[in-house]
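> forwarded from #structure-qc
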């Protein structure tokens, strides 16, 4: 099958039609480009290929499918032919959701499953997007950013990436080229000579480690501990205050509230005798922030660990400390607290894996009973805080899982024997297991990285085993077993070619002597191995090397993301690694800068520090830094082995055109193009930037329409597949602003006294860094817009070959133009935020209205960037105005302020804003001026300026300005400004057309009409105020009009002489209907009150308005009186409305009132409450009648009509409704409300109620009758708990006991009566007294042996009372000591409230009366014995 190649291909947007062609890329002659490169870079293919069809084939042989396309009608796994049309469509984006896939071991999977799971394009392509035809440029670009924001997070987690079995993973790609290595050594710090001498002294017991949290190396020499700053070699600290050899050291976080607040770490030191805690205060040096200053505090906390030989100490972020030793396989916990308790000191030790006295007794080694190598001990202990799990690895490679939740608890979940794991590995590939194979280390996998995979075990052969947790359907305790999910064989590290090669799976023995290993989320593999003990060796050869090698690798996130994007058959775990000779013995592996663990690393490469890992060796500390794609791309251009263009093509094929364009764009914009080691660089840094610019422009592809169109049917702009260049710009912008896009701008903090203070949620340096990146991008796009298709303008359309291509170019131009506008808005938006934070933020926000303060607290950066700042209601405009007003109040000049704003954020301060600021300044001068003529001049100037900007004024600003005019008695100006603003808001005079056409409800012009009405209301308010202003003065004095009269006449003349027809229409309505509801509520005149009081007699709406009128003026007594009259009145109201009025009246009576009205309000409140209680009973009867099937529909309608109207008295409710229809529970409620205490009627009601419940339950046959009776007793007991007459235990107990004996005998729990009464709130002593009285009265039916039921219930009540009191006493008195029984308050451990003498007397009476031998007597005697024992 011949491969096709050709010279000098032409650029294309792709999307051509193919059929019946087989592609088999083969090595090409020099100067040619293979098929895969052509597709990845977006070139046209020759006509002979376009004229042929394509017949499916294997997916891995189909480069068009491989690079993200799906054949319409084709089969994902090959074999089926393409449809007749045969065109190719880009996969639409999709979200991963909650994937539910099926995958066979080693088999292939249908590509459509993958596309539906993660989406064919993680970049959020156009297809499947919401239409943007109706959107303005900035909202359109914001929608694109949001789509990209979501699609960039569709990165599969580890469970989705790994497959079952070794054959489903590609071997690790070993990079030897310096340009492509995933990690680089950034620093190497040597151990000081004095410490190095001690380390090499074989006569001393010496161990070393790292505290990367504080940049410190520690070393022990026998009983001494030394620490120093590894970066500077200084800051020596020592601890020599204990005599025992140190076996283990760990830096942990302390428990909250135990140590002093300045102690932010605790140093756990394990010795041969004890475990000691030392407090550490670590602070950064003010002059040199990279240096930590340490202060050690003696906490006087230690615990005896003699015989344990502590070798492991680990802790949680909340301060729990676990440890283990080499003498046994137990897991211990160190507990510590601030103060000593009665029975334990400040420190304690808990063994979570042994029971009984062995968990507390000291360990005594017995060497003659067993050999050291026969003892299984804890080799490693790790904590997964995302799942609250503790894992241990034993010396025999057995894994145990524990779960911690509550304080000082550690529950074992399972044990995973190494034999079981070894069998699982042999099933997949026996070559990975040899006789000496063991687990070197285990590493937790956080929940955010994988849902099911919990651990990664590293074998001594260098293989990694992924272990997932299994939960049994019969288990309620989480993880019950483990299973091997995946194996990564060790890489082949020997005889590598310059570009590296892939090892045969499972045959590598390069790391067969793995010494240390750690897997760091999201999958960094750091492995220390002995090269002299690895690789091929002669039989029996054993050499111990003091020079270790490092293998360090990382998941190739960019490549995995491209696999998902391109829609290949299978996601595979792909990683890239490198081998480094440490030239010394490795001691520890620690993380310096944590990596990004929330998905694709490339998503956060522009705003998150690169991960750093520290390796401690016998000669020093070596720091390795994760290299990001921008660094790899720049290095590949600078000194790649195959030349710049070949390296870039390799990069594009590896990571796809979109991610590659993103990287090229970032390098072209100058992001992190730092010089690596100068190993024969062939280009300068500026040349790197220029080449990156070139490849971004040339390899960015073209927009295309995926469907075949002709001249008659052109694609819409939304159906065009935009170029990789556009997608790259969108992704780059999204990655720059991803950390702030969804975040609030303002963070509210409650200060002293609960007063809110405001601050920035994002730190200022971060905002400035984002702004600089956006500015660099904007400069790059502006400087190269003539070279970038879509930004070059209309001249690009002259070079298109068809109308379809022209539409595609238009879509590209529209999208890029929108992105350019959004970038500019983001830059100015951040500048505006920085200006805001440079001002007095609290004063500015507090000057806003309540609604605006809520909005400013909730606004996000996305909202700020996408809001039209020119809108009158824009929050940004209100903030700008507040900033200017604040500075004016501080004495600043308006021109200076406006000029500063326009320079930093011009779009937030327009020319109209400047005029408004000058108008505000003139108004401020008028307010401060005392001379009348000068004040009038400033007021007229302010009015003139405000009229020029009336069209852009928001209603809030307009109202505030009018109010300020009115405060300065400039009423004519207030009316004039409101009228001008109304016309400017509706220049098309739509409101007039709305009125002329009949003011239809759904007329779109109604919005303009309503806006103008808001302005007119300002006019009417000004007219009312000017009338009130002039009403206190005569119209004329000595034949001359007074000033007040002149102002009133001038104000009315402005309104009367207006030529605004819409205003005149509203003005006459206002004059004719001076008592409109909205105006009346806002008018403080007696006329309004008199008008409402007069009309409220016959008009329900006016009556409701009247009580609101009083309530607004805080005259709550009058408001409540009006509501009472409404509830009692003759208006046609439903019962629910009357209930509402009474409830409102009760609430108003509870409000604060004048001192002289307090008694009257209290009296009225009592009346309202009584009427409300009756109304509630009436409403309950109404609902009961509605659901009563015994009543006919006709009768029911009559009753409902009577009940759902006027309020009815209690007597009528009882005599007419409750009693005739046997609503016995309602009868009891009526008795309670009327304070009726007739015992005969009440007992009769209870008897009837019990019988009703019994009969209804028997009829329904759903539950036992006693259950329904018990529920009724509990419910009514709570309802009538305040009335001993309505809920009388002395009557209820005999009734219920008789009912249970005669009608529910031997049914249900024996003590259900007492349970229900106790739960209903009846006190135990009352029940005992009633039962005792029944016992001694010897009345039928409780005679003879039947009386034993009473004894049984009495003993049950006494037990409940007694043991319930004991529980309460333990809660107060604590554990330990004896408890005394008495009637006291429980002080000193006695049960509170339990009357022992009373109970004992009753129970002894039963014994003395000759209670027969049986369960009741045994239970009684046992209880008496318990009570006497505790007395």
């Amino acid at each position: 099958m011949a491969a096709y190649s050709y010279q000098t291909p032409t650029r294309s947007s792709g999307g051509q039609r193919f059929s019946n062609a087989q592609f088999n890329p083969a090595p090409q002659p020099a100067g040619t480009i293979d098929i895969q490169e052509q597709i990845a870079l977006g070139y046209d293919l020759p006509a002979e290929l376009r004229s042929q069809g394509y017949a499916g084939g294997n997916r891995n042989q189909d480069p068009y499918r491989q690079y993200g396309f799906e054949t319409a009608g084709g089969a994902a796994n090959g074999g089926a032919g393409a449809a007749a049309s045969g065109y190719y469509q880009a996969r639409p984006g999709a979200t991963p959701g909650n994937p539910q896939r099926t995958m066979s071991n080693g088999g292939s999977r249908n590509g459509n499953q993958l596309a539906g799971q993660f989406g064919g394009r993680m970049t959020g392509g156009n297809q499947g997007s919401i239409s943007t035809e109706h959107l303005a440029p900035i909202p359109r670009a914001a929608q694109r950013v949001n789509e990209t924001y979501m699609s960039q997070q569709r990165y599969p987690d580890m469970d989705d990436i790994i497959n079952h079995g070794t054959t489903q993973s590609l071997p690790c790609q070993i990079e030897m080229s310096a340009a492509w290595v995933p990690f680089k050594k950034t620093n190497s710090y040597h151990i000081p000579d004095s410490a190095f001498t001690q380390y090499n002294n074989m006569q001393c017991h010496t161990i070393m480690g790292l505290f990367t949290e504080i940049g410190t190396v520690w070393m022990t020499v026998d009983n001494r501990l030394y620490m120093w700053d590894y970066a500077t070699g200084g800051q020596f600290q020592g601890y020599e205050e204990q005599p025992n050899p140190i076996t283990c050291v760990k830096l942990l976080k302390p428990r909250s509230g135990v140590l002093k607040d300045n102690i932010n770490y605790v140093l756990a030191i394990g010795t041969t005798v004890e475990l000691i805690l030392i407090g550490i205060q670590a602070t950064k040096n003010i002059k040199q922030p990279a240096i930590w200053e340490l202060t050690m505090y003696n906490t006087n906390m230690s615990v005896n660990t003699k015989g344990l030989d502590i070798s492991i100490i680990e802790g949680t972020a909340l301060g729990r400390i676990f440890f283990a030793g080499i003498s046994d396989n137990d897991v211990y916990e160190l507990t510590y607290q601030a103060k000593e308790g009665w029975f334990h000191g400040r420190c304690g030790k808990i063994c979570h894996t042994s029971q009984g006295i062995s968990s507390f007794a000291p360990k005594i080694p017995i060497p003659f009973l067993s050999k050291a190598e026969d003892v299984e001990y804890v080799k490693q202990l790790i904590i997964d805080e995302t799942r609250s799990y503790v894992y241990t690895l034993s010396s025999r490679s057995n894994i145990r899982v524990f779960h911690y939740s509550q304080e000082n608890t550690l529950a074992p979940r399972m044990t995973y024997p190494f034999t079981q794991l070894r069998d699982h590995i042999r099933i997949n590939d026996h070559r990975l297991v040899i006789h000496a194979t063991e687990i070197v280390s285990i590493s937790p996998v956080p929940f955010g990285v994988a849902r099911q995979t919990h651990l990664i075990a590293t074998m001594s052969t260098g293989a990694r085993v992924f272990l997932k947790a299994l939960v049994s359907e019969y288990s309620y305790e989480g993880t019950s077993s483990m299973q091997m999910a995946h194996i990564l064989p060790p890489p082949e590290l020997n005889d590598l070619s310059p570009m590296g090669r892939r090892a045969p799976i499972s045959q590598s023995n390069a790391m067969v002597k793995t010494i240390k290993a750690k897997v760091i989320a999201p999958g960094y593999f750091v492995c220390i191995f002995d090269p002299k003990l690895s690789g091929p060796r002669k039989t029996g050869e054993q050499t111990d090397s003091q020079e270790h090698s490092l293998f360090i690798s990382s998941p190739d996130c960019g490549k995995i993301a491209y696999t998902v994007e391109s829609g290949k058959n299978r996601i595979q775990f792909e990683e890239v690694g490198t081998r480094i000779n440490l030239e010394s013995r490795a001691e520890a592996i620690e993380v310096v800068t944590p990596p990004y663990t929330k998905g694709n690393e490339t998503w956060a490469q522009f705003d998150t520090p690169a991960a750093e890992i520290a390796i401690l060796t016998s000669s020093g500390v070596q720091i390795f830094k994760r290299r990001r794609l921008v660094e790899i791309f720049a290095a590949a251009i600078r000194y790649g082995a195959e030349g710049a263009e070949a390296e870039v093509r390799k990069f594009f094929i590896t990571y796809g055109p979109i991610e590659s364009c993103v990287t090229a764009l970032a390098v072209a914009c100058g992001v992190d193009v730092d010089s690596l080691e100068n190993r024969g660089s062939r280009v300068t840094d500026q040349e790197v930037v220029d080449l990156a610019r070139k490849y971004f422009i040339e390899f960015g592809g073209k927009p295309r329409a995926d469907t075949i169109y002709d001249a008659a049917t052109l694609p819409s702009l939304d159906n065009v597949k935009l170029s990789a260049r556009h997608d790259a710009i969108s992704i780059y912008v999204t990655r720059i602003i991803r950390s702030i896009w969804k975040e609030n701008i303002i963070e509210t903090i409650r200060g002293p006294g609960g007063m809110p203070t405001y601050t920035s949620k994002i730190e200022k340096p971060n905002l400035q860094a984002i702004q600089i990146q956006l500015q660099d991008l904007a400069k790059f796009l502006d400087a190269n817009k003539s070279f970038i298709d879509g930004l070059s303008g209309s001249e690009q359309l002259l070079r298109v070959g068809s109308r379809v291509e022209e539409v595609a170019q238009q879509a590209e131009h529209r999208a890029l133009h929108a992105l350019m506008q959004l970038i500019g808005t983001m830059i100015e938006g951040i500048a505006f935020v920085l200006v805001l934070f440079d001002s007095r933020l609290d004063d500015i926000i507090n000057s806003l209205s309540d609604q605006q303060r809520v909005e400013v607290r909730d606004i996000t950066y996305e909202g700020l960037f996408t809001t039209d700042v020119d809108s009158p209601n824009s929050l940004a405009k209100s903030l700008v105005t507040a900033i200017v007003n604040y500075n004016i109040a501080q004495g600043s000049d308006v021109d200076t302020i406006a000029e500063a704003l326009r320079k930093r954020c011009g779009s937030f301060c327009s020319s109209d804003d400047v005029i408004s600021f000058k108008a505000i300044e003139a108004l401020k001068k008028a307010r401060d001026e005392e001379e009348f003529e000068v004040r009038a001049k400033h007021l007229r100037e302010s009015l003139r300026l405000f009229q020029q900007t009336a069209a852009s004024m928001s209603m809030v600003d307009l109202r505030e300005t009018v109010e300020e005019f009115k405060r300065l008695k400039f009423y004519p100006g207030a009316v004039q400004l409101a009228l001008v603003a109304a016309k400017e808001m509706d220049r098309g005079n739509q409101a007039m057309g709305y009125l002329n056409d009949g003011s239809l409800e759904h007329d779109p012009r109604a919005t303009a009409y309503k806006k103008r009405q808001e302005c007119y209301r300002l006019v009417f308010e000004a007219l009312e105020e000017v009338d009130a202003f002039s009403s206190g003065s005569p119209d004329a004095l000595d034949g001359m009009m007074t000033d007040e009269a002149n102002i009133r006449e001038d104000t009315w003349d402005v309104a009367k002489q207006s030529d605004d027809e819409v205003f005149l229409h509203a003005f006459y309505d206002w004059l004719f209907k001076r008592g409109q509801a909205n105006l009346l509520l806002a008018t403080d005149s007696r006329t309004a009150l008199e008008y409402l009081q007069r009309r409220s007699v016959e008009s329900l709406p006016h009556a409701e308005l009247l009580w609101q009128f009083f309530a607004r003026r805080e005259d709550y007594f009058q408001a409540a009186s009006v509501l009472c009259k409404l509830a009692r009145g003759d208006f046609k109201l439903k019962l629910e409305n009357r209930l509402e009025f009474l409830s409102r009246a009760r609430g108003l009576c509870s409000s604060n009132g004048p001192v002289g009205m307090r008694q009257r309000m209290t009296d009225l409140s009592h009346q309202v409450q009584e009427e409300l209680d009756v109304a509630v009973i009436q409403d309950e009867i109404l609902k009961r009648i509605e659901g009563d099937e015994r009543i006919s529909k006709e009768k029911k309608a009559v009753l409902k009509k009577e009940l759902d109207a006027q309020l009815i008295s209690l007597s009528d409710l009882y005599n007419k409704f409750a009693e005739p229809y046997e609503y016995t529970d309602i009868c009891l409620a009526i008795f309670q409300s009327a304070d009726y205490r007739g015992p005969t009627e009440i007992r009769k009601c209870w008897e009837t109620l019990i019988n009703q419940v019994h009969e209804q339950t028997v009829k329904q046959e759903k539950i036992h009758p006693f259950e329904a009776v018990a529920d009724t007793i509990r419910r009514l007991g709570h309802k009538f708990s305040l009335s001993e007459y309505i809920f009388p235990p002395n009557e209820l107990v005999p009734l219920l006991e008789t009912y249970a004996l005669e009608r529910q005998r031997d049914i249900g729990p024996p003590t259900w009566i007492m349970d229900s009464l106790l739960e209903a709130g009846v006190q135990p002593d009352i029940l005992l007294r009633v039962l005792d009285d029944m016992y001694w009265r010897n009345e039928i039916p409780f005679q003879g042996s039947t009386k034993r039921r009473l004894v049984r219930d009495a003993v049950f009540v006494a037990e409940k009372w007694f043991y319930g009191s004991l529980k309460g006493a333990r809660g107060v008195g604590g554990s330990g000591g004896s408890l005394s029984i008495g009637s006291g308050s429980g002080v000193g451990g006695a049960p509170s409230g339990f009357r022992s003498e009373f109970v004992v007397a009753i129970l002894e009476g039963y014994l003395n009366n000759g209670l027969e031998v049986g369960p009741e007597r045994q239970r009684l005697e046992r209880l008496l014995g318990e009570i006497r024992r505790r007395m």
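QC bot note: The longest helix spans residues 803-838. The chain has a mean pLDDT of 77.
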